[in-house]
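Weekly sync notes, structure subgroup
Attendees: PM, AL, DS (notes)

Item 1: joint prediction request from the bench team. They want all three components modeled as one assembly rather than separately. Inputs as received:
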Amino acid sequence: MLFGFPPEIYLMQIVFGLALGAIYVLLASGLSIIFGLLDVINFAHGTFYMLGAYAVYVAVSLTGNFWIGLVCAVLIVALFGALTEWTLLKRLYKEEPFYPLLLTFGMAVAIPDAMKFIFGLIGKVVEYPSGLVGAIMAGPILLPKYRLFIIVLTAFVMILLWLFLKKSDLGMIIRAATRDSLMVQVLGVNVSRIWTVGFSIGVGLAALGGAVAAPMVSAVPDMGVEMTVECFVVVVIGGLGSLGGAILGGLIIGQVVSFVSLFAGDYSNVAIFFAMAVILLIRPRGLFGEAGRL
Amino acid sequence: MVDFSVEKGQLKSIIGPNGAGKTTLFNLIAGVFIPSSGRIYFDNKDITSKKVHQISQLGITKTYQITHVFPRLTAFENIRISVQSRMSSFNFWRRVGTFSRINKKAEEILTLVTLADSHDRPASTLSHGERKYLEIGIALATEPKILLLDEPTAGMSPAETIEATKLIRSLTDQLELTVILVEHDMSVVMEISDEVMVLNEGSVLAQGTCEEISCNTIVQRVYLGERNE
Amino acid sequence: MGKNNSIKTVWIALLIFLFLPFILSAPLATEMLIYSLFALGFNILLGQTGVISFGHAAYFGLGAYFAGIALRYFGSSVWTSLLASIVVGGVAAVLIGALSIKKKGVYFAMISLAFAQMFYFLALSALKKWTGGEDGLKFIPILKLDFPFHVDLASPYPLYFFVYFIVALSIFAIWRILESPFGRLLQAIRENEERTEACGFDTTMAKFISLVFSGIFSGLAGGLLTVYLGYVPVTTLFWMTSGTVVMMTILGGMHSFIGPVVGASLFLLLQDEISYLTDRWEMYVGAMFMALVLLFPEGIVGTIKDKIETKRKRVQESQWVGDVS
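Output from the run, pasted for the record:
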């Protein structure tokens, strides 16, 4: 026994932390991509997470199949993201970067309330897919199948993302087409489409996080705000603009939340802020942050 | 690797092809970048690791190649705030209009850079040439001992360039400044410099008077295609 | 921000506010004053210095809570409780600023939101014993003023004019700060921080002090809210409060002195009206805010000023044409 808990509990907490961290990784990498490409902090990032959860609820209700529902949910929300970027966000790029940020904030206020209007206040339950109910026994440890699934899925998606960005043509274009790059002047309208694609990928990741979290937490209109804040903490700790930072930051925060809720349940939702404060004190740039002006 | 010095009261020009490192040199002197090796001394003091605003307070001020002014503030305010930098700013209470010494000085400098007529116009509405003058004015307002001018005539018409060149020389003499000038326009350089330094790919190619440099064959070769007037 | 114009608008606004409780209701007018102060304090940082914070609920909420704590647990006078709210607003700004003011704007925006949420969660659960948790801090004794003369703060009109007095003094203080050399420095930072630094100013220190002033006045507004409500709702620390002050300020116009006052008042009026009709106030205000950012980013006062300016120029030009022909 260690601090009052048997060692199996610690291992299980690590797994819980990884599953939680995986969701943070999905969101934080999406946020990083959007910021890296568009110079915009998406204040509505958690909102798209929430939309992902609702989308999977609707899709599963309609199709009866979790997997189809999952894919549809991500695609629908990514499409919605593309639409908002194309019709609204794009108009503000010529202004100071502060204005697109405000627009996303407006979305973060309006959309959750609209969801309350459409779906009501009570959370919508999404059933676990039949193959992933229950847990595996690994020795004395109980490992919930669904959480293992989340970890594996996220790892898979991250590898796919990395390959896409580093190796594919479109990926390389995305990495180069930041808003102030020479490409903007040379390619003009075409780069505009790249931005839309990038934004869709970013919010698609958030939606995936929400869709995947839905069976565990249910789709609730206000689930987005807390996630946005937690996402921000992850990128502040990991450093914005770096995928590695998003991953490391997400995993760390996942473990922090997991273990604090074990030892000091009351403080579990403030622990990450203390962690952020500590990082700001000792390594202001974040773990992988860009050098230069902090 | 650059090793050079400037003497008080000199007007020294730095020339060199694009990418030679001229603006980088200015940024190093002004404290925007920290050198990876070597030291920078001003008035026998080591300023290598000082911050931008500290170096400015010590008396080194630079201008920007692409004008970097305060867009929504009036031309007058652009200069007035720069004058204010030489007094303690953490004064929260007295109204700004009551600081007559600062206002007077700002008016003088505004006139000196021929922008008195644009007193109340927002800086964003000024023409390119006027903005280049405002650049210089903002820098002068800080009462610099050393003024780093980064391509002050870039983008100016030939007539404007002649006027600006005359102004720079007369200001240098009048205010007893030490000036380091980065320029592409040879006519400007030859007209007003006491000394010229040629940079290429981050190193000093040659240093000397205008005649020495214009006769230097290596410099001529590097500048193949540049017109020497 | 022309100084002659802005002081005139302040006098006009204060004059209007003298009569407002009789035209609208005293409670609504009191809220307008309180949130006007909050927005003005917020705008020291945003409109004047160019730094956006999404966590100003921290200062407002902490000010409200500490005023409430002083009143309920320490039996202090109303003056002392307001002093507590000022101090805590300033201290919170010092602490948060020390950790974050050096960072780039986007980071600061995120960190400010994060710290405000931290305080919210602390008040909600971890420190429930002191703060009352979800229900807020209640059972504050009936409020009255004994010095310099007796004022019954439990009745709406005396309460209104007490708040009016404090807010008016604060508005003048903020005006003096913004018109001082320091205020001009903040403006320059907003316009071009890099250049301001190159002119020899310690811009980090200036932004830090701007944040502290902002925290002080936001905290005071929070304290006034406690005096007005008689209790402290936990929503004062909630992110939506931070968002509300951002929206109010942008609505009124962040680049004018009186803009935040106009924005806060109009926002509360709209909220009052629309809440009668629907529960989904946030959906409408969010949509309206998006439209604002897309179409009228300078807000009401800013757009009016621009129109006046364009008209003035056109009149000038037509005069010249007239002269020539």
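Discussion: Chains A and B do not touch (no CB pair under 8 Å).
Action: AL to compare against the crosslinking data before next sync.
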